[in-house]
Structures are given as C-alpha cells and as structure tokens.
Automatic annotation (TrEMBL):
Residues 36-160 form the TY-Chap N-terminal domain. Residues 213-344 form the TY-Chap central domain. This is YbjN domain-containing protein.
Amino acid sequence: MTAEPTDATAPLPAEGLLLDVEDTSAGADLKAKVREAWQDFARALAIAFPQLAPGTVLDITLDPTASGTGDAVYEVRVTAGESGALTAAAVGNALLPEGYRLDRAAIGALVALGWSPPGVLDASRDFFGLRLPASDSGRLAVIVSRTLRDVYGAPHPAFLTYAASDADGTAVPVPALGAARPLAVDEPGDLSDEAATDRALARFGEDLVRLPLADQVAAVVATLLKTTPDALSVDPDGDIGIRAGSAMVFVRVRDNPPLIDVFSPVLTEVEPTERLYVKLSELTNRMPIGRLYCTNDTVWASVPVFGRDFQPTHLMLAVQVMTGLADELDDRLHGEFGGKRFFGEGDKPAIRRGDAENTGMYL
C-alpha cells in the first residue's frame, strides 16, 4: 500500500507493497493489524527523513529488553548529509555476539533490499551501508522497515525505540514514528488513538515508575480500557479480567521473576489430539508474538511481558494482541475441535479449573 503524496508526505514506492502479507489463516485479523502498524511506521519514516536537519543522526533500535535478544543490539542508523543525501547503516555480524549473528539467508536478504556489505560504502566500517537522496525517502523508509521486521525480527513497531541527535550529540525532536517508542521527546506530534493512550500513560510520569509492578500494570490496563484501576474486574487470584467478545483475557503479575502474563483460556473441555497439537503449532508459527498450546483439556493463548525495566507500551501491545487473537481463535477452533468457549453463544461459561497447574506451561 502506498501513501498518498502530499506536500508534507513522501510517497512510498512500489516496494511498499512488499510490506503486505497475504494470510487467510485464523490469525488473519491479527496479522492485518500488525501489517497496518508496519505500514504506519514506514509512512512515518518517509515523512521524517526529509525533515532531518543536516548532521542529524536518527537511531532506530530493536529493544533487547522486549525482544529477548540479550546483549545483541539490532539497530539501523540514518544520518542526514549536508547535500541532502541520507546515509543509512545497519548492524552487521562484527557487532553482534555469537549466537545472534545473521545467517547467510539474512545477509542475502539485506543485500537484496539494497544494502551494501560492510566496508563497501565509504566509512561504513562494520555496518551494512546505503546512501540515497532525500527524494528517495519513501524507498529508504520501506528498506529500513523491512530490515527491522524481516531481517532483525522485530515482531511489531512497538518493540522499537528511536532517538535523534544533532552533530554535537544533543537530543533533537523528530516526528512520531508510528507505534515505535521515542527515548526522548520534546514536542508531541499528531496523535493517533494508540499514541493518545501512550500520552495518557506519560502523564503518570515518575509517579508510575515508583509504584509496585502490580499497581503499574493496573494503571496501564485501566488507561487502555479508559477506566480507573478501582473499576477493573479483578478475581480472587488477583488476575485482571478483560472480556473480548466470546473470550476472556487475564492479566497476571508475577514477582519472581518479575513478569506479566497476558493469557486466555481459548477453549475448555476440548479433547487433546495429535491434529489439535499440529494445528496449534502451525498457528503459533504464524503469530507475530505469543504462543498457543494445550494442557489437559484446555487450549491456552499467552503473551509474556517483561516486568524488569517495565515498559507500558509492551503491555499495551500484549493486551491488544491477545484480545483480538482470543476472540478470533476461540470461534474458529471451537468450530473445528469442539470444546467450550468462555462466553460462547449457547455455551455455559468455562470453569477455570486448576489454574495453578494449567497456567504454568505457558511460560
């Protein structure tokens, strides 16, 4: 999909169509939302690149805390030149620890996207390099987006952070880059509904950080649902319940290690069969984040969120993904494998039996 060219918008080139992924599986709605988020991110980049003042450096990084990549830092840097050229650099294997380096297929994908191997472009050193005029900002936006998503493995733009600085290293503002998280923001840009929620969370400021993790989670979920923490539905186990159509999503806080579980009993009283396990494995492989599994007679969906260095946007993404996923999959899986949905039409509400045993396997 290409952006409509305007005075303030750089159009995405034909390569932008490569951001689309056709999928008619049970996770199609979820994948559509993720695809749209990446397209919004690419459009935002196409707008931001021509606005970078000469000497400005924009770093876009896959957050290792959210992605579980440890010491590996996958990053793309874009520098605005004096002549209007945009020079981009993408992390190569010399900068990655063993076990997180790019394989031949990933390196081939970078070259196919237009990156020159490390050392080919002047001053690129250990980075893959690319230089384009500002008039090609739309093409560069697609290349950067696909590099972060397809090569570095970012599941969603919300797992990205970005920051810009001038030639002296002083932080400078840039337009909002979709769902990506700015590390330093001086001026708010145009806000979408999701960004407005982010802004509402930002009003908590340092007060939110000082709260215990459980209170932080309650504040985030309440803000997402446009209510107050006191009005949330909390069961005797301390789990926050969120109804999503015929499904129920729970948010549970664990202390050791600090972790937030966003999970849903998609189906209960279902017969575990080899065909069911194969189906769940297939669907899990198609999901951008999270997993599906069956234990005893219950099919679960789960997305874990790190509690250490807690980031509200990560929890927001997990809740949004899970509410859409659970409501979609319980109907589809019920039609194929039977069982009971939590709020299925004509079904009695599922009984949450043995949570202490059943939920342990989704970690």
